[in-house]
């Protein structure tokens, strides 16, 4: 495993150098998206080879290269790839009546007043949560949520058939794959049993990586791409991003959860 790790690291560094070369070329000439498509396709194919499942297994010690390598590269290539990236938004039909969504539906926070809202079957009436508007039924997906200055929150992935009226255990068996923060530093993966996690760095942005066919939901410190936790399961129905900003606690937890979009 150590030899494979060193090999992957070396090949990633080579790919990074190739990317820098491309950027240097762009300084002297206008490179269209069509022009660089063959390069990106070959690079993506190579990166897939460099991402064996064991490298993102929760059984390994967290580290920089435990993250999905294609997304480390994606962060470096945002300016090139962003025309093909679909940003996530929140689904107001699922939002608890106490939640307030921004006009562009990328931020959510807990309001002081319960709003009068239609009692849609999709709407949460107990958990102060909201789902993303996009359903996932295949493929690999990655998004980031800004959680800075919040004292508590819960984010992750849920299946379409979860219980939304009343309360239920937030466990994988019930269709929830979630990371939860309480009291500003009490971080847990809501597995069975729940797993307490140590915060070694400031966690201001959470990266969430879903591999539908691979049966994995992984969480990362999006600033460093250090692995936090991975759930393993088998997915057979639609999955949705899950966002819970929690109560505002008299202003102590008033900051919103914010879905980050490529710039």
Give the gist of this structure:
The protein has 263 residues and is an alpha+beta fold. The protein is 21% helix and 25% strand.
Question: What do these coordinates show?
Answer:
The chain has 263 residues and is α+β, with helices and mostly antiparallel strands. It has two domains: 2-84, no CATH class; 92-260, Jelly Rolls (Sandwich). The chain is built from four helices and 13 strands. The chain has helices spanning 2-28, 33-49, 69-76, 78-81, and strands at 99-101, 107-110, 130-131, 140-146, 153-159, 176-182, 186-189, 195-197, 205-211, 216-221, 226-232, 239-244, 257-260. The strands form two sheets. The protein has a seven-stranded antiparallel sheet with strand order 1-2-13-4-9-10-11, with no helix packed on it. Strands 3-12-5-6-7-8 form a six-stranded antiparallel sheet, with no helix packed on it. The longest helix is centred in the first third of the chain and has 27 residues, at 2-28. It is globular. Pfam families: PRY, SPRY. Residues 67-263 form the B30.2/SPRY domain. InterPro entries: B30.2/SPRY, B30.2/SPRY_sf, Butyrophylin_SPRY, ConA-like_dom_sf, PRY, SPRY_dom, TRIM/RBCC. This is Tripartite motif containing 69.
């Amino acid at each position: 495993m150590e030899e494979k790790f060193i090999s992957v690291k070396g090949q990633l560094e080579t790919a990074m150098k190739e990317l820098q070369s491309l950027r240097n070329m762009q300084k002297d000439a206008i490179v269209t998206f069509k022009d660089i498509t063959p390069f990106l396709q070959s690079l993506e194919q190579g990166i897939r080879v460099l991402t064996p499942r064991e490298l993102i297994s929760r059984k390994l010690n967290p580290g920089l290269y435990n993250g999905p390598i294609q997304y480390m590269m994606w962060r470096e290539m945002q300016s090139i790839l962003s025309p093909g990236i679909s940003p996530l938004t929140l689904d107001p039909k699922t939002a608890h009546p106490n939640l307030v969504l921004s006009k562009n539906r990328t931020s959510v926070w807990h309001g002081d007043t319960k709003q009068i809202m239609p009692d849609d079957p999709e709407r949460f009436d107990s958990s102060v949560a909201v789902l993303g508007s996009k359903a996932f039924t295949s493929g690999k997906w990655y998004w980031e949520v800004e959680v800075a200055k919040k004292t508590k929150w819960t984010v992750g992935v849920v299946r379409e058939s979860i219980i939304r009226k009343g309360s239920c255990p937030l466990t994988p068996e019930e269709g929830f794959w979630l990371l939860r923060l309480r009291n500003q530093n009490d971080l847990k993966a809501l597995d069975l049993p729940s797993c307490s996690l140590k915060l070694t760095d400031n966690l201001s942005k959470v990266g969430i990586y879903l591999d539908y066919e691979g049966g994995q939901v992984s969480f990362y410190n999006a600033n460093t791409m250090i692995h936090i936790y991975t759930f393993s399961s088998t997915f057979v129905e639609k999955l949705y991003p899950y966002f819970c900003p929690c109560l505002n606690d008299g202003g102590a937890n008033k900051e919103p959860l914010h879905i980050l979009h490529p710039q």
